[in-house]
Amino acid sequence: MRPQLVIVGAGPRGTGLLERIAANAPELYAGSGLDIHLVDPYPPGGGRIWRQAQSPLLWMNSHAEDVTMFTDETVTMAGPVREGPTLHEWAALDAGTFADRQLQGRYLRWVYERARADLPPEVTVHHHPQRALRVSGPREGRQQVWLEGRPRPLLADLVILALGHLDSELDPEQRALAAYAREHDLVHLPPDFTADSDLSPLGPGEPVLVRGFGLAFVDLMVLLTEGRGGRYEGDTYHPSGREPVLHVGSRRGVPYHSKIGYGWTGERPPLPRFLGPAEIERLSARPDRVDFRRDVWPLVAKELGFAHYHRLFTAHPERTAMDRADFEAKYAAAGDPAELRALVLAAVPDPADRLDLDALDHPLDGVRHTSPEAFQEELRGYIEADLSRRHDPSRSADLSVFLGLLSVYGQLVRLGNIGPWWHGFFSYLASGPPGPRLRQMLALSRAGLLRFVGADMTVSAENGVFRAASPTVPGFFVEARALVEARLPEPTLGRARDRLLRELHADGAAETPDGLLRTDPADGRILDGRGRPHPRLFALGPYTDARTPGAFTRPRTGGAAFRQNDATARAVLAFLGTSLVKELAR
Predict the structure, then answer these.
(1) Beta-carbon neighbour count of residue 521 at 10 Å?
(2) What is the pLDDT of residue 289?
(3) Of 3, 73, 12, 68, which is closest to residue 36 (Cα–Cα)?
(4) In degrees to the nearest 10, what's the CA dihedral of 364, 368, 371, 376?
(5) CB-count exposure of residue 110 (10 Å: 0-12, 13-18, 19+)
(6) Looking at per-residue confidence, does 128 or 553 come out higher?
(7) β-pairing, 158-161 with 533-539?
(8) How confident is residue 419, by pLDDT bands cut at 50, 70 and 90?
(9) What is the radius of gyration, based on Cα positions, of the chain?
């Protein structure tokens, strides 16, 4: 009987796993054959999020040169490196292009086809365009994977859940808002993947409240403006007349920072320096629960500061007032934040050259305006300043912090449960929109089609409408008959609309306090409530406690997702190629 492997999810994660299985099979798999079943209602390669059947107006938020599905020598893994083209090399694009998602879908399909072709001849891939509903079976025996519309299950010796972003049930606040909308004939669009949202109820000229100022908002903005026939000429937007008026706010009240618009030159910061494998091992060995703010954040902040100042001293020494070696020795020895602040004040004269993570995270703290118009002008200035800085190579310490963020994320995924704040902070600083999208925001603001509400935006439902307010403009509020929650659903087990995850949760899979699926950091096996890894079930992706910074990896940055994929692929092949062969032979 041929061994059977089921991978649920055929998007970038499932495709990456297939690539690692192909790379490691010559070393680890000597079986007489293997069937790999990919279960996904969407085409393999792109999956749901990166499917080719979506608007060509929607872009990636990374330069084409920064998108790869292939490993390189910087990835710390046991398997072999199999290099391949980045998106810009494969598509013959300019390196700095922000490709549309349709093109990325074609790239992912090509990667999938290449990985499938690289498998040994005796390995066969089967795609099942259905949804997986449940995985059942004994811990020590074959699993049954039940598919929608199929009376009998797929039998699997091992199962890997490689699910991406999923729909979820509404939380109590969202349920109340949805009920109010139904009662008063309003429009309420809950958290969702924007490309899948029905935006037709948002009428021309009507005010729309939008809560969320990240990448989901950018997609919403594009689909409701250019997607409705508007066009840009330079810095001017020409409306079609079909656009609504968007009133947007969030916790921070500002958009995510622009993608950096220049490349790296010169010496890279030697990372990790203050948060590396030794520190992670020490934190993991603690008998008490690790508190992110108390135990981890000081190390993160010191690591990011090191990346920032290393670049400042090496690339822009004329803006420093201390010998670099002396500074770095004192920086390493500094034992508390006050000591570090005093050192930086002495060594870096210009406040614009200092890294203030708290100020970055709370840009509008204490900011108050007497009128909405004054705030519109203020925030346009903020966005223009951000664009200028993020495209100025003389501010290249910002790019070094970006590299520090990638290094930190690669270490933190080994810790597992660190809470949701870090992921949001990382995305805000490192995974923001392309610069042209922020310029479009400015054009829409000047055209009166985009209005900024402010920080700590609140939404209430009263007097038959939705009402938004912010302490940034005290006493001001805006009312509308439509509310859009511009963000992806939270990836939690308890509210997952995906039946497979709900069943897994009901069957005893462990979750973190934040509702993420607990997995073994060594190879991705799913843990139960007693901390035991399931011998035949694995999981990777954003709903696990080993979530990585994004779907794709920037070349030569270590690639935490590559490391995870490789570890899981090797564990799977070792099991199928040794213990399972012996089991079947008995």
Answers:
(1) 18
(2) 85
(3) 3
(4) -20
(5) middle
(6) 128
(7) parallel
(8) confident
(9) 25
Residue 585 reports pLDDT greater than 60 = no
pTM of the model: 0.94
The total of other beta-carbon atoms located within 10 Å of residue 270's CB is 9
Phi-psi domain of 92 (left: phi exceeds 0; alpha: psi -120 through 50; beta: other): left
Cβ atoms within 10 Å of 321's Cβ, excluding its own: 12
The CATH number, out of the four listed (3.40.50.1110, 3.40.190.10, 2.60.40.3500, 3.50.50.60), of the domain defined by the range 4-168+491-585: 3.50.50.60
Tell which CATH classification among 1.10.10.10, 3.50.50.60, 3.60.15.10, 3.20.20.70 matches the domain 172-256+433-485: 3.50.50.60
Query: Helices (DSSP H) in 316-366: which residue ranges?
Result: 324-333, 337-347, 357-361
The arithmetic mean of pLDDT across residues 268-294, rounded, is 93
Tokens 């690289």, residue located: 118
Which residue, among 522, 413, 497, has the nearest Cα to 163 in the 3D structure? 497
Structure tokens at 301: 């902040």
User: How far is the C-alpha of 489 from the C-alpha of 169, rounded, in Å?
Assistant: 8
Cβ count within 10 A of residue 334: 17
Tokens 């700590």, located at residue? 456
pLDDT of residue 547: 83
**pLDDT level of residue 84 (50, 70, 90 thresholds):** very high
Give pLDDT, residue 582: 58
